[in-house]
Each structure stands twice: as structure tokens, then as C-alpha cells.
Design a protein that fits this description.
The protein is mostly helical. The chain contains three helices and no strands. The protein has helices at residues 17-33, 44-63, 69-79.
Length: 85
């Protein structure tokens, strides 16, 4: 299992300016005040990176376009850890 940090998705398809600004603030807050280093599966910083990648993937699917490789890679890495609904 790859335990390297997930990349921050550069693609902004489907992400509003407000969402992106709040996401950056949340990520910064978790970087400063968040928990100590954790594995990729339990880190809140990695979780918000994955959530962002999932939103971009869904926006591409709705638009009928192809997401970039980085988005697909990020969503696939955490897919097995997705909470059951």
C-alpha cells in the first residue's frame, strides 16, 4: 500500500471560488492546528484532498469530460477507504 501523501488536485472543474478559498483555509488550519502525522488512511488532511478530487471527478462525469490522471489516481487510492453508506 502506498503511504505517500496524496497530491492536491490542480483541476478546478466544478469547484466554485468560495469552495476553493474555504478549502485552502481548512487545509491550512489542519496543517497548523490539526493532529500529528498520521497514516494516509486516517489523516484529515488527506481526507479533504480526496473529497476535493471526488468533487472534481463527479463534475467531469456530469459534464461528460475526461478528468486528468492526477484526479483519477487520487480518487482510486482512497476509494477502498470510502465510508460505507
Amino acid at each position: 500500500m502506498d503511504e505517500s501523501p496524496l497530491p492536491i488536485i490542480r483541476d478546478i472543474t466544478g469547484l466554485s471560488l468560495r469552495y476553493r478559498a474555504l478549502w485552502r483555509l481548512k487545509f491550512l488550519g489542519l496543517s497548523i492546528f490539526g493532529p500529528a502525522e498520521r497514516s494516509v488512511a486516517t489523516s484529515p488532511r488527506e481526507r479533504i484532498k480526496w473529497d476535493r478530487a471526488m468533487m472534481v471527478l463527479r463534475a467531469h462525469q456530469a459534464a461528460g469530460t475526461q478528468p486528468d490522471e492526477q484526479t483519477i489516481y487520487t480518487t482510486n487510492r482512497m476509494e477502498s477507504r470510502r465510508p460505507k453508506q
